[in-house]
Amino acid sequence: MAMAVQASLIGTERVVDRSMAIYRAHLERAVEVPLGDMVDRHIPIDVARLSVVAAGDIRVAEIMVDETVVCAQLNAALWSLTEQRWRATVVVPTARLGEAHTALRGVPCHLQGWWEDSTGICFGGPETP
Question: How would residue 1 be classed by pLDDT, with cut points 50, 70 and 90?
């Protein structure tokens, strides 16, 4: 429960920054783009505004989910990304992994939890919903 409160106070900006730093450290090019700019389907406005860290050379799209979005609303966007040959990962606060597993079961994506500790933003391993 404390992580959910912490996550909402942090927002996703620092998570995006950490993800971008990891790509730079691996010499991969990545950009931050709104999810709505990447999909070819109608999606709710709160989903369309989510930040995506997109590494085009390796076709990876990491969708940074905040505390306000219902994970089930990502379905259409995830199918659109898959049809465009992106490998999508939904990055959620660890306190929301259970909800994400339930909401996205059978949808082509991976889930990845994040949290903050004394060293900064940390990521768990990818999971299949």
Answer: very low
Tens-place pLDDT, residues 92-124: 999 999 999 999 999 999 999 999 999 999 999
- Is the predicted pLDDT of residue 10 greater than 70, yes or no? no
The closest alpha carbon to 75, from 105, 52, 34, 50, belongs to: 105
- The candidate with the shortest Cα–Cα distance to 47, out of 56, 36, 58, 61, is 36
User: Which phi-psi region, left, alpha or beta, contains residue 62 (left: φ > 0; alpha: ψ -120 to 50)?
Assistant: beta
CA separation for the pair 129, 127 (Å, rounded): 6
How many residues can be counted in the chain?
129
Inside any domain, residue 39? yes
Number of independent structural domains in the chain: 1
With respect to residue 81, please indicate whether it lies within any of the assigned structural domains: yes
∠ Cα 66 42 123 (to 5°): 25
The dihedral over CA atoms of 17, 58, 64, 89, expressed in degrees to the nearest 10, equals -140
Structural domain including 32 reads 2-123
Does residue 128 form part of some domain?
Answer: no
